[in-house]
Amino acid sequence: MIKAVIFDMGGVLLRTEDPTPRTQLAGQYGLSVSALENLVFNSESSIRAERGEISEQEHWAWVCAQLGLPPSAIQDLQTQFWAGDRLDTELVTFIKNLRPHIKTGLLSNAWTGTRQIVEARYGFLDAFDVVIFSAEVGMRKPDAQIFHHTLKQLQVAPHEAVFVDDLLPNVEGARRVGLHAIHFTHPTSVREAIQALLDHHFQPRS
Q1: How far apart are CA 201 and CA 161, in angstroms?
Q2: What torsion do the CA atoms of 3, 180, 87, 54 make, to the nearest 10 degrees?
Q3: Could you tell me the strand order of the sheet in which 103-108 lies?
Q4: Percent of the chain having pLDDT more than 90?
Q5: Pfam families attached here (predicted)?
Q6: Hey, CA dihedral for 50, 147, 141, 104, is it positive or negative?
Q7: Which one, of 193, 169, 167, lies nearest residue 180 by Cα?
Q8: Is a pLDDT exceeding 60 seen at residue 206?
Q9: Pairwise pLDDT comparison (205 vs 132), residue with the higher score
């Protein structure tokens, strides 16, 4: 029976709805958008930051160095990089409406300081019973240990939880642990998929 639904953040709740600022930024440095995003999200520096081995500031300083910029450019670079991102308020409302019958969790590969930044800028973390940011716990998706940690915090078994992520390796990692996992491609379809699972496997939280 489903007792908890766990969501990823970036690419699911927070999405780049306006690609223009990031496209313009990449063009300034002669890069494709994917090359710029790989520097920020998929580099060894980013992975270390997601594990909490280096700070967010150290990671951005590394990104600046790769672009030939001084550390003093970090703030302007961040501002333009994130300028097209938007919070899906309808999906947040859907999550809030799952409670109190279903436990809700947020599980994100994220750098140090993310909790404070997200809460100050968007203020939606109160939609969740449990919020796990990878840098705070020293492990990251798709490693099994972070899924087990999240399940323990929610006090549910793997088969009692649904996990939603936009990245297939994370979806597959969750399935290996035993969670029901949904690949996020569109907010409407993910809401429908979650509702279908709940309709078939629902058990109210105790």
Answers
A1: 10
A2: 100
A3: 130-133, 103-108, 4-7, 161-165, 180-183
A4: 95
A5: Hydrolase (PF00702)
A6: negative
A7: 193
A8: no
A9: 132
Who contacts 145 (Cβ-Cβ below 8 Å, separation ≥6)?
Answer: 139
Burial of 53 from C-beta contacts in 10 A (0-12 / 13-18 / 19+): middle
Q: Which domains does the chain have, with CATH numbers?
A: 4-15+86-201 (3.40.50.1000), 18-82 (1.10.150)
The token pair at 31 is 């890069």
Which is nearest to 12 in space by CA: 133, 186, 129? 186
Q: What is the pLDDT at residue 204?
A: 54
Other beta carbons within 10 Å of 142: 19
Quick one: pLDDT at residue 174?
A: 98
Both structure tokens of 205: 């939280």
**pLDDT for residue 200:** 80
For residue 19, cis peptide bond before it (omega within 30 degrees of 0): no
Q: How is residue 86 annotated by DSSP?
A: E
Contacts from 153-158 at CB under 8 Å and sequence distance 24+? 153/105, 154/3, 154/4, 154/6, 154/103, 154/105, 154/129, 154/130, 155/103, 156/3, 156/4, 156/103
